[in-house]
Structure formats: C-alpha cells, structure tokens
UniProtKB/TrEMBL annotation:
3-hydroxyisobutyrate dehydrogenase-like NAD-binding domain residues: 171-290
Domain 6-phosphogluconate dehydrogenase NADP-binding residues, every copy: 9-168
Record-annotated active site: K177
InterPro entries: 6-PGluconate_DH-like_C_sf (IPR008927), 6PGD_dom2 (IPR013328), 6PGDH_NADP-bd (IPR006115), HIBADH-like_NADP-bd (IPR029154), HIBADH-related (IPR015815), HIBADH-related_NP60_sf (IPR051265), NAD(P)-bd_dom_sf (IPR036291)
Signal peptide: none
Lineage, opening ranks: Eukaryota, Viridiplantae, Streptophyta, Embryophyta, Tracheophyta
Designated name of the protein: Glyoxylate reductase 2
Source organism, top-level taxon: Eukaryota
GO molecular function, one term: NAD binding
Keywords: NAD, NADP, Oxidoreductase, Stress response
Amino acid sequence: MADELGTVSIGFLGMGIMGSPMAQNLIKAGCDVTVWNRTKSKCDPLVGLGAKYKSSPEEVTATCDLTFAMLADPESAIDVACGKNGAIFGISSGKGYVDVSTVDVASSILISKQIKDTGALFLEAPVSGSKKPAEDGQLIFLTAGDKPLYEKAAPFLDIMGKSKFYLGEVGNGAAMKLVVNMIMGSMMASFAEGILLSQKVGLDPNVLVEVVSQGAINAPMYSLKGPSMIKSVYPTAFPLKHQQKDMRLALGLAESVSQSTPIAAAANELYKVAKSYGLSDEDFSAVIEALKAAKSREA
C-alpha cells in the first residue's frame, strides 16, 4: 500500500495546528510529501521525517500531482492559492488542488475558479475535528467539487481521517463546515453557562460534566473540555479566534438566505467579548472567561 501511495506526489501547504499532524500522517503512511509554510521553521520537523521542502506554493504545485492546503482563514487561503507565487502559478492540467481550510462559500468558489482556469481539478474538503483528531487520523472531510479528484484523493483522505462525505458542487462543503462549527460554538457557550451556574448554586461542576456525559445531550467535547475549563486551563486544540471567525462566517451564510440564527448570534457576541479579553489564541473553550468577566463586572 505504501508503494502504491508513494507513486502520487503530494504537496501540503500550511504547517499549523492542523496541517502539521495531517502531513505527518501522510509521511508516516509512506507518501511522497513536499511541504511549505510561511514560517519555514515549522516545516523542519516534517523534513526530519522525510518530507521535501519548497519555498513557495507555486513550487509545490509545480512539482506535485496533488496538493492539499490547510490555511487559517479565507484571506490566507485565497492568498496562498492565488496571490504572489501562489498555487495557481505552478499547477496545471492533470493535477489537483484540495483545500481543506475552513472558508466561506464565496472564497471557496473564487479559489475553485482560479484553479480550474489552469486546467487543474479542485476539491474543497474542510474538516470537522481539531488537533487531537488530526494527530490520530480521525478527521471528517466535507468535500465538494470535481468528483474525479475526490476519487483520486480518497486514499489520502482516508489516511488523515475516519470518514468523508461528497456533497456535490463547490460551496456545499464550505457551507456544511460552517453549519457544523456554528452548532459547536453555540454548544460550547451554553456548556460554559452551565458550568458557571452549577458552581454559583453550590454544585460540583465535575459532577455536572459526569451527568452530562451519561445523558442524551452527551458530546465528546463536554467530557474532553469540561475538566480543564473547571480549572481555568485552555490548551489550544481549536483557537478561539478561529471559532469566532467561523461563527461570523456562518452568520453571514444565514443572512444570505434570510435564515434566523438568534442563538448563534448571541454566542458569537460572547466569543467577541472573549477575544477582547486577549483570549484569541487560547482554546475556544476559553469562552467561559467572557462569562466570568461579565459576572465580575455585574458584581
């Protein structure tokens, strides 16, 4: 299997919290991987594992059959694909570009058009999952775009993830990811309220986490994040600034189709408060600190 995978040269753009472990899993599976990142030092551990390095996205796509991109936000995703020395200047007919970043629908469509104008194929494939699932190869890929590229990329998606969905035309993958993250952000905000309320009325919040984890509303997120939230520790698996960005994009998506999302809108305001308290780079579970701040101001 490793020999078979090694016949397709893989590029990977973006060595952040998610991109680095995803690329590592490809390397460990025997894939021929070439990496790039704005900060070159973040590529060094991957090169140490056997990856090649190129100094621009253009050079990566010029030398690789299939290139994955995992960037922090729509602006970065567009710049890496279409900006100076971007992926579009190296990619060509017969090659493929798989954008696994979380972006809005319009940005994904823009990148798709630029890539496809070169004759190459495009697939959007944002992921559901954060740092630990990325490390464990347990991500969920929400793909849309060129079906032949989906089929070609499938073995590599299977290395990095536990499941994949093909959702049709470009934009559908981006929309699905924003809906999922909108729900997640609202759930976390409500969970934070529950933890603080339980403490204020004299209950043990650790018991609350246990009760929740055994009932119908259980989600792995609660038992994973709850204990550290109670200790006011927020090891970053999914940065709060990215959660707020996804809430903002999801609200924009909702507005574009005149869908009311009052709960998500309220949760978004809480993430904005948390950002104003300097918590952008903490895990998104640090949103609980915005409620503590509100509580202390009221007191």
